[in-house]
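Q: Here's a chain of 299 amino acids. Please give me its 3D structure as C-alpha cells.
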Amino acid sequence: MASARDIKQRIKGVKSTGKITRAMEMISAVKMRKAVQSVLAIRPYAQGAIALLRRIGESIDDGAHPLLSDRPIRNELYVVIASNRGLCGAFNAQIGKRLRQTLKEDAGRGQRFVTIGKKGDAAVKRLQGDIIASFPDVLSTPTVELMRPIGQVVMEEFIAGRADRVVMVYTDYVSMLSQEVKVRAILPVAVKDTEKAMHEMGGRVSRKASVSGAEYIIEPSPSEALERIVPRLIEMELYHAVLESNASQEAARMMAMRNATDAAKEMSADLTLAYNQLRQQKITQEIAELSAGMAAVSQ
C-alpha cells in the first residue's frame, strides 16, 4: 500500500499535469479561432473563382486545358493532410483509418502520395506507400504562396500522365465538437465538383453570372485565362483544405486537453480522498495505541 508521502507526491504531479493541459487547451482554442477566421476569409475569393471558371468554361470546348481532361483512372495521387504533432485525440487516427478504407476501395490502381504533416507522412509509411513529396513545414503558418509548390507537384504529375486523378484526404471542420474526414478529388478540375466543395463549406455560388445576358470580353483569350485561373483554383483548394485541417486539429486538441484536465481533477480528488483516509487511519491507530498505553499505566 502506498504511503501518505507517495500519495501526496502523486497529487502534486497530477495537479501540475492538469495545469499544463489547461494551458494547452486555451492555446488550442485561440489557434482554432484564428484558423476558422482564415477559412471564412477565403470563401469570397473561392466563390468568385468558381463563378469566373464557369463563365470561361462556357466559352471553350471540354478538354481545352490539360487539367480539365477526364480520362480512365489507372493511377491515383493522394494528398494526405494531417498534423505535425500529437496530443489531439483521434484526429490523426481517423485520417489513417479513412485512408486505409479509400486505398482498399481503389485497389488495383497505381497509388502514390503527397503528404502534408509529419503524422500523415508516418501513416503513409506504415502502409508502405510511395511518397513522392512531403511538406511538413506548411502547417504552422499556411499561406497561398506555400501551397504553390504542392500545387505544382500535383499538376505536373497529372499533366505528365503519372496520375489520372488527384484526391485530397483531409479533415473538414464542422464545429468545435465535430470534425469529419473527407476524400475529395481536385484533379481533373470539374465545375460541378468544385461547386459541391463550396456547398460543403457553406458557400453559395450564384448562377446569375452564368445565366445573365451580359456579355464578357475575355482577353487575351479564354484558353489563356484558364492557364492562370485553374492553377490558382487548385492552390485555393489546397489552402482551404489545410486551413480546415488546422482548425479541426486544434479543435480536437482542445477537446483532448479538456478531457485530460477533467481526468486530472477527478484523479486528484480520488487521491486526496485516499490520502485523507490513510491519514485518518493513522490518526485513529495512534489514538488507539495511546489509549491502550494509558489504560496499561492506570492499571
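Q: Can you summarize the key feature?
A: The longest helix spans residues 222-298.
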